[in-house]
Amino acid sequence: MLRRWQQGDDVASRELFDRYAGRIWHLAEQQIAKRLKPRFDGDDIVQSVFRTVLRRSRDGDVEIEASHTLWHFLAAVARNKIHRRVAHHQMQRRDLNREQSTPQSDSSRQPHQDCADDEPTPDEAVALIEEVNALLSTVNPREAEIFRNCLEG
Fold first, then answer.
1. Which of 19, 24, 27, 108 has the fewest CB atoms in 10 Å of its CB?
2. Which residues lie closer than 8 Å to 43 by C-beta, 6 or more apart?
3. Cα-based torsion angle of the residue sequence 140, 146, 152, 153 in order, rounded to the nearest 10 degrees
4. How would you write the pLDDT of the chain (153 residues) with one tens digit per residue?
5. Cβ contacts of residue 148 below 8 Å, gap of 6+?
6. What secondary structure letter does DSSP report for 141?
7. 23: number of Cβ within 10 Å
8. Distance between CA atoms of residues 8 and 29, nearest Å
């Protein structure tokens, strides 16, 4: 199937997915800690594995002869992706151990009542305009124009 995909048979990619996606998903779900599943899960790994493998095989970077070898290769790619994602989410700035839950608010209040107002005060708006103008005075006119266009949408 992989060879057919490499030769341009788009149906082969669907057959590969149908044959191996469930197995990759089960592998990923077994290896991803429950506390990390809100961040990524088996579906994310399946998509990432197939995106990588199909792209690299089409580019000629992957040569696999037998289906049992293909499964071992897909499983290894999945495990590597899981390990990288776990490491990514355990970096100091993203570490789940650093997350703190928000205190329970009065149940009679609406959740949005605890949020700050989205609109700046007049003083804040003036301060922002002054800050932007000061920043724009330090760059060349072309960069200032690009920045203004970005701000305007």
1. 108
2. 25
3. -160
4. 778 888 888 898 899 999 999 999 999 999 888 888 888 999 999 999 999 998 888 888 887 777 678 899 999 999 999 999 888 877 756 555 665 666 655 555 555 454 445 666 777 767 777 777 777 788 888 887 887 777 776
5. 136
6. H
7. 14
8. 31
